[in-house]
Each structure stands twice: as structure tokens, then as C-alpha cells.
Amino acid sequence: MKARCIAVLLGLVLVILTVSVALAASEGGESQWTTGKLTWRVINTIALIALLVWALKGPLTKFFAERKTQIQEDLAEALRQKEQAEMLIKEYQSKIAGMEQELAKMREELQKAGELESRNVVANGDRMAAAMIEAAQVTAEQEVRKAKAALKNEAVTLAVQLAESLIREKINEDDRKRIVEEYLVKVGGSK
């Protein structure tokens, strides 16, 4: 580290000297720079640099130490945050895996519920169909009884009409008198 600082300082001195000589030569004419003046300039420059290094060494050292500490703290914080992020990622991945299992379970339950509901709907439909068939059979039987009763009534009415017409055709006046007398005897005898 010290070797590096010395090398930088010597390089800086060399640059300053070169610039000083170049400036002196550009003024034209005879150079006012003598070896003595140049030596004093170099000594002054080295003294200035030494004074700056001595004066700024403490604050610069403190600044760079604080900066180094801050960078180390920032790095430690970044690592801590990285670890937290990785933990969160693992946690979310496990939650996602759990959610996928839960979704599969819910799908299975919904499918079972749908199948059960389907069976219930079919069973209800079968019961309703059976009830409708039974009601239709009862209604049909009632209609058949009504039709039979209506046919009987019609047959009786037709038989009575036919008997009446036959009686009117076959019975003459003598038969009517005899029937009336027999009726009166029966009615009179029953009193």
C-alpha cells in the first residue's frame, strides 16, 4: 500500500515538473529556469504534497474506513435481504404446491358432488316418471269405468226403448186391458 502511494506521488511530481518546464519554455526567449530554481520548485511541490498528505491523511483514512464499514454493512444487509427473499420464495413455492393439492382435492370433491347430484336428479326423474305413469294408469282406469258405466246406461236406455217399442207393436187393446186389470189387482191386493 505504501509503495503504491510513493509511486503515485513520484508520478505526480514528474507530471508537475514536466508541466512546469513546458510552461517555462513556452514563455519564449531564454529560460529563467535554472537548476536551483527547479530544485526549489520540486522541493516546494514535494513539501506541498507531503503537507496535503499529512493534513488529509486522517480525514481521508477516516472517510475511507467509514465508507468501507458502510459498504460492509450494506453488503451484510443485502445478504440478509437475499436470504429473506429466498425464504419467502421457498415459502410461496410450498404454498403454491399446497394450493395445487388443495385445488386437486376441490376438483375431486366437486366431481363427486356433481356425480351425486346427477344420480339424485336421475333418481328424482325416475320417481317422477313412475308417479306420472301410476297417475296415468289410475286416470285411464277411471276413464274406462266411466266409459263402461256410460255404455251400460246407454245399453239400458236402448233396451228400455227397444222393449217399449216392441211392447207397443205387439200389445193390442185386449192385452192392455188385461195388464191394467192385473196391475190393479196386484195393487189392490197389496193394500
Describe the structure.
With 191 residues, this protein is mostly helical. It has a domain at 149-189. Helix content is 93%, strand content 0%. The chain is built from three helices and no strands. The chain has helices at 2-26, 35-170, 173-189.
Oligomeric grouping of the chains = single chain
Kindly estimate the percentage of residues that lie in beta strands according to DSSP. under 5%
- Silhouette: rod-shaped
Low-confidence stretches: none
- Our count of helices gives 3
Mean pLDDT: 82
Helix content: over 70%
Whole-Å distance between the termini? 162 Å
| Total DSSP E strands | 0
Q: Specify Rg, calculated over alpha carbons.
A: 67 Å
The largest sheet is: none
Order of helices and strands: HHH
SS content category: mainly alpha
Key terms:
mainly alpha, single chain, 191 residues
Concise account of the structure shown:
This protein is an all-alpha fold and 191 residues long.
Which secondary structure elements does this structure contain, and how are they paired or packed?
Layout: H1 2-26, H2 35-170, H3 173-189
Helix pairs in contact: 1-2
